[in-house]
Amino acid sequence: MNNLEALDNITQTSNKDSWEKMVTGKAFLNPEQQTTFLREFQVSDPALTMARMVYMQNPSRETSLFKINGRVSQAGYVDGDLTQHKTQANLTGADLNFTGQVINTTKIKAKVSLTDDELEENIERQTLQQTVLSEMGYKMGLDNAYWNFFGDTSIKATTDSLLCAGDGWIKRATNKIKSKGLDSSKGTFDVANGVDSIFDAMKNTLPSEFKNTQQLVCFVPYEVEDAYRNYVIKRETPLGDSTLPTWNGLTYKNIPIIHSPALDDADAQSIDNTATCLLSSTTNLEYNIFKDITVELDRDAPNERNDFIFRYKALPSLQRNDGVVVAKISLDELADIQESSKKKPVFVQEIKNTTSDSPSGTP
């Protein structure tokens, strides 16, 4: 089930409390309201649209995965003798590796304030409901994408009150590489060789069992996506890539290169003064949402203000931690990468056919 199907399914599974209850106390979003909220939530960042949203009926769930190591098929005859069949005792059993995790969602809250005048003028109108749900859904989606990428329980709440709520995809990832500009001795790629060197290093680092996955995608900051677009535009080929300045299907070796606004976040980059790219299959990236999304009114009568408290439970997760590659570059490299991609055109040599039409194929 994809994310859109999951949203449509909400209509059949959610409670049907009305919007009016939100002005008198705590209320669950009804199916239509949840769909409105979560659609805006997802479109805020491509990472939320493309990753797997797990719509949970309970606040926690258990996952169980296994993989088979090495080959499992064997010859059915003993030493090629067609009269001697291998018995069960002669076969080598498959090497199975079972893994699992318990996902316990954690509470996330947000607040929006409306004055009495705003409520009195709009409380009877559905436009207020849609506006509040849409705007809060969009902004909370941006925050969720930020948390999905950069969540880290080792961060103090005084430093970032959201990232400390749970570990995100970057923290959970097993495979992490960095540029030589960030670490000259341990860096695995040099951004000076071109923006594509980042993608090449990431793909080479990804374990072989994940390299042929059709759903591979690379999420990058704006500067990296723009630099690669410049790189593609400057190529001189018979067809002319200069026709691609607004082309959306940007790929590297069939891997989509996708700009994620969450990776542009200045607060996230300031954590370790780096910019981040992430490579994984979209089915491996998960964010879990518990079905009960509520809104509660906190009335401030003296100030004629109404604070609507949005509350939901969520947690980012990965199906396989080793199915992700995280690449880090310095902020100086990030700042330079766009301009450097414009300086030198990339010439693609056209190989001419030098063979004759003779049957022998000799010049």
Number of strands: 16
Nearest-angstrom radius of gyration? 26 Å
Uncertain segments? 4-24
Amino- and carboxy-terminal Cα gap: 58 Å
Structural class by SSE content: alpha+beta
Q: What is the makeup of the main sheet? A: 6 strands, mixed
The overall pLDDT, averaged over residues, is 82
Strand percentage: 25-35%
Shape field: globular
Helical segment tally?
Answer: 11
The amount of helix comes to 25-40%
The SSE string, one letter per element, is HEHHEEEEEEHHHEHHEHEEHEEEEEH
What can you tell me about this protein's structure?
By secondary structure, the chain is of the alpha+beta class. The chain has eleven helices and 16 strands. The chain has helices at residues 3-13, 31-43, 46-50, 116-122, 126-150, 169-172, 196-205, 208-211, 222-234, 266-272, 331-343, and strands at residues 27-28, 52-56, 60-69, 77-78, 81-85, 95-104, 106-115, 175-178, 216-220, 251-252, 255-259, 274-281, 285-290, 294-300, 305-318, 324-330. The strands form four sheets. Strands 1, 2, 7, 13, 14 and 15 form a six-stranded mixed β-sheet that branches. Strand 10 and strand 11 (255-259) form a beta hairpin. Helix 1 (3-13) packs antiparallel against helix 2 (31-43), helix 2 packs across helix 5 (126-150) and helix 9 runs parallel beside helix 11. The radius of gyration is 26 Å and the shape is globular. The chain starts with a helix and ends in a 20-residue tail after the last helix. 30% of the residues are buried. Residues 4-24 have low confidence and may be disordered.
